[in-house]
Amino acid sequence: MPPKKGKKPPAHKLCAALDPGFILKDLKKKEWMIGNAIGSGGFGLLYLADDASKSTVKDDAGYVIKVEPVKNGPLFCEIAFYQRAAKSEDIDKWRKKTKLPFVGIPPYIAHGLHGSGDNGLRFMVMPRCGTDLHKTWLKLNKKFTRTTIAKLAIFMIDALEYMHSMEYVHADIKGANILQGYKDPNNVYLVDFGLATRYMIEGTHKEYKADPRKAHNGTIEYTSVDAHKGAAPSRRGDFEILGFVLVHWVAGKLPWEEKLSDAQKVMELKMAAMKDPKRFVKSSCPSDMPDEILKYLVIVSNLEYEETPDYNKLRNIFKSFLKSTGT
C-alpha cells in the first residue's frame, strides 16, 4: 500500500471511466485519443493516450492523460505548477545552464476541459513514465542498496534544485511519486505536484507561521516537521522529507511506523530524529551505518526555514560515496 496521507483529504471523487477511443481536445484545440486505463493517481484516473490523428492508442504509446472531475482541486494545482514551472524550454535552459544531461521533472505538454457543469472533466497530458520506486522497493523486500540510494538521491537533489529555482517546493516526495523513465529506466522523474506550492512570492520568502488548521499535511511517514506544525512548505522541508525517504529505503522501516494513527506522536519522533540525526540513523540501521545519509541529514537538520540549501554540498556527499565504491 502506498504511504498514507497525514490529513484526511477532502471528499474528492474519481470521474466516470472513459472508453478507449474517446477524444479530448486541449486548450490549443489539439485532439488526443484515450487508450486503456492504466491506474489512478491522487484523485485522477490515468489513461494511455496519443495524438488523435492515429487510428488507435497502442500499448507502447508515449503519453498518458490524467482526468478528474472539474470540481476537484488536486489536478488544478498540478496544472498550475506545470504551466508556470515545467515548460520544456525552461527545463532545457536549466539543464544547459547547469550542464546536466538530465533533469527529472516531466515537461508540460497540454491540458484542457471537457463537458460542463457537474459532469465536466479536467485533464492533463503528460509524458509516459515507467514503474514507481515504491513498487520496486516492495519487490526488493523493502531494501535498496546504498549505491542505488545514492544515485537516486542525486537525481532528486537535481530535480529539487530546478523546482526551487522556479520558486516552487514539492512537499510530497516519496517512492510512489518517483517514476523510472519509460524508455530509459536508468533515469527517474519526480511527479505528482498536487501539493506543490510557491515558497516565494515576488522574490520574498513566505514567513514561518504555524497554523494548526493545516497541521500534519502531506504523507505522514515522510512529511516535514514544519508541515506537521502547519507551516507553509519550504526548501528545507523538501530535503527533510527526502531524508526520511532515504532512511526508509535503506533501513526498510522508520521509528514512527507503528504510530501513524497518531500524527502528534509521529511529529515528536521526527523532531527527535532531526535533533539527533546520528542516533536516528544508527538506530534505524544498526548493522550497516550509511554515513552518507547521516552527513546529509546533519546538513539538513541545520537549515533555517528561509535558507537556500547548498545543493552542491548535498550532491557531493553522495557523489563522494559512489566514488569510494568505485561506481
UniProtKB/TrEMBL annotation:
Domain Protein kinase: 32-322
Pfam families the UniProt entry points to: Pkinase
Binding site for ATP: 66
GO molecular function, one term: ATP binding
Keyword Lipoprotein tagged: no
Keywords per UniProt: ATP-binding, Nucleotide-binding
Descriptive protein name: Protein kinase domain-containing protein
